[in-house]
Amino acid sequence: MSTKKRTVPAEELALINRFARRELTEEEVYTFPVVLCDNETDRDGERFSREALDKLAELFVGKTGIFDHDPKGRNQTARIYAAEVVTDTDRVTRSGEPYACVKAKAYMMRTAGSADLIREIDGGIKKEVSVSCAASKKRCGICGADMRVSPCSHIKGCYYGGRLADVVLDGITDAYEWSFVAVPAQPAAGITKALGAPDGFSAERKALMREIENSRSEIAEMKRDITAEIVRLGQFCVPACDPEWVRTICKNMNAAELLRFKEKTRAKARPGYVGSVLSHGSGAEEKDHSRFKL
Ligand SMILES: [Zn+2]
Known about the structure:
Strand content: 25-35%
Radius of gyration: 28 Å
Helix content: 25-40%
Structural class: alpha+beta
Number of helices: 7
Number of domains: 2
Order of helices and strands: HEEHEEEHEEEEEEHHHH
Shape: elongated
Number of strands: 11
Distance between the termini: 66 Å
Largest sheet: 7 strands, mixed
Bound molecules: zinc ion
């Protein structure tokens, strides 16, 4: 049984033939779309800048890809003949930018050795795309500091004012190879199902993610406030106590522990001081924090 043939438009065949030693016909080639990479923060806490994606789209044209389950397979390689950056304005990344990805078109030769593979791609094998490239710059996603020259204090994976600290890869100098990772073509529906990139999040999931980010940021702010108050109160319990020691102790506490610590510190502080703190509006702060008491 032969694999299903697809018609390759003449202009695409012309693009493919730029890489062939002889003129290929549409019956000889099998084409499919593949999403190489995007600007979403990955598991390593890194993401490509928009400029990096543009450069990658340019550099990956002509590059070969391999099926990772059989990198030595003679007929199991494909070559990218076109690539572009596609933006989805309805989808927002974790760093709050419009989602963008490098969408490529790849071809492979229809041979006896590739027939099974083509069937697998048509059938929709789910795998991830991985690309290897060289990035000369790594920037902090929060403040833009050059991580190689003058690293900042933002910690990858932490939230600052609701924003996730990640590392932005920029200054792409080379694109080497991409490993497969098939993306099934669905010509009948005219849709590219991009298995290489995470599926678009639903509105509900996006809202939940935003809520979690906001809560994290609020808790961090609240912990800073409570710590500052413990430091102030601490001066009246043990005047010789170094505020830095207190801050270090507080750093390892969760919000509930911090509140208990503050109460204990307040109880031990001199009455005159506590009275003056309350009269200066500390009572309002108390009210704000009370909802975190469990
Ligand atoms: Zn930074």
